[in-house]
Design brief:
Strand 7 (85-90) and strand 8 (97-102) form a beta hairpin. The protein has a 5-stranded mixed sheet. A 3-stranded antiparallel sheet has the order 1-2-5, with no helix packed on it. The protein has a 3-stranded antiparallel sheet with strand order 6-7-8, with no helix packed on it. Helices cover 13% and strands 36% of the residues. It has helices spanning 2-14, 44-50, and strands spanning 17-21, 28-32, 37-41, 55-61, 65-68, 73-78, 85-90, 97-102, 108-112, 126-128, 144-145. The protein is globular. The protein is mostly beta strands. The longest helix has 13 residues, at 2-14. The structure holds zinc ion (2 copies). Residues 41, 43, 45-46, 55, 129 line the site of one zinc ion (ZN).
Length: 149
């Protein structure tokens, strides 16, 4: 009976842990628990830096995130809207952004949602900066939409 309870606890803990990493697997991370928010960002900076139409971003408290691998390279961008910085931290080998930090959210580690080993786990409940979304984007029903952040 105790063994069964231990096994259930183990399953419960494992379901709180999600892993991911960069394209070349030099950098790996493990997050514990749910993100405070997972959102799709359609800002022009995310479009440019990712080379894609929007970014999928999961925000965790920094103590929920464990990183391993070589020290990350950083690029600091200043928002032309707020003047505050956004830092992209990326693998020095393959250039995949594995972490984003923001001046406006101290203590928060944002993980790009497409870098999880299980990409289906990270589903955005909010779309932000919709004013710069590509004109072919169709927003799913039931998600929160914000013209800006
Ligand atoms: Zn890499
Ligand atoms: Zn963005």
């Amino acid at each position: 009976m105790i063994r069964y309870a231990d096994r259930l606890l183990e399953i419960a803990v494992m379901s709180l842990i999600h892993e991911g990493g960069c394209a070349c697997a030099s950098v790996r991370y493990r997050v514990t628990g749910q993100p405070a928010i997972a959102q799709a960002c359609h800002c022009s900076f995310c479009q440019r830096r990712s080379g894609s139409a929007f970014a999928l971003l999961a925000a965790f408290k920094e103590d929920q995130v464990d990183l391993s691998g070589p020290p990350l390279t950083q690029y600091e961008h200043r928002s032309d809207e707020s003047g505050r910085w956004v830092r992209c931290h990326f693998c020095p080998v393959c250039g995949t952004t594995v972490l984003i930090t923001l001046e406006r959210n101290p203590g928060v580690s944002v993980i790009p949602g497409g870098s999880f080993d299980d990409p289906g786990w990270c589903k955005p409940s909010r779309h932000i900066w919709t004013r710069s979304a590509h004109d072919w984007i169709v927003f799913p029903a039931g998600v929160e939409l914000r013209e800006k952040a």
